[in-house]
Amino acid sequence: MDKENLIELKVLGITRSEVQPGAYALLLENADSTPDEARRIPIVVGAAEAQSIAVRLEQVVPSRPMTHDLFVSMFHVYGIQLEGVTIYSFKDGVFASFLHLNNGTMSVDIDSRTSDAIAIALRTGAPVYTTPEVMKLTSYEWRRDGNYKSQRTVRLEDLPVEKLEQRMQHYVDKEEYEKAARVQKIIAQKTNPTQGGE
Are the C-beta atoms of 162 and 194 separated by less than 8 Å? Predict the structure, then answer.
């Protein structure tokens, strides 16, 4: 795994959406952030994945192994090490990640849903990375002073990227993560108008 051009991230936590029942947001932040400012990436995740991540973050030991615990147990049994996770793509509002695995004789990258990859990484202590391109497309600036201007109600598609980033920040500050994800998708379409499907 070549880490030279990657940005390391840390997991801040899981938040329940107040807008849509059953929806959650996983919040990531650049590892070299300061107490006063950072770049943050919100990722909408399902209830099962949110529970699995939250259980690990809160250091709760379930009575029976969860699916991600099972993966980690299999890694241990077969001598596989998770060297890291890379969030390598953001297309059509969906993040994609690689699990970088090594068994001592060979290395392999396995495609994974980002929520699953992070749930496993948290259980192994493996680092999480993203590319500068994904960071640019999906992150927003967080500042401790929280001095962000709210936007007038307009058609999102008509706003410039800079204004969309401010709008996304506004939604995240209010924990309206589904709206933030929709704005994130529009930003991606504006910055990569010719991108197609997988």
Answer: no
Element (H, E) at 160: none
Average pLDDT, the chain: 84
Instruction: Give the CATH number of domain 7-191; options: 3.10.690.10, 3.10.20.30, 3.30.565.10, 3.40.50.1370.
Output: 3.10.690.10
Q: Is 49 helix (H, G, I), strand (E, B) or coil?
A: helix
Place 157 in a pLDDT band, splitting at 50, 70 and 90.
confident
Q: Residue 155 is encoded by which pair of tokens?
A: 């058609």
Answer whether residue 8 shows pLDDT above 60: yes
Structural domain spans, the chain: 7-191
The winner for highest mean pLDDT among 1-5, 79-83, 170-174 is 79-83
* Element at 28 (helix H, strand E): strand 24-30
pLDDT, average across residues 37-58: 87
Please name the amino acid found at residue 75: F
Sheet containing 24-30: which strands, arranged edge to edge? 107-113, 94-102, 81-91, 128-130, 7-16, 24-30, 37-45, 140-143
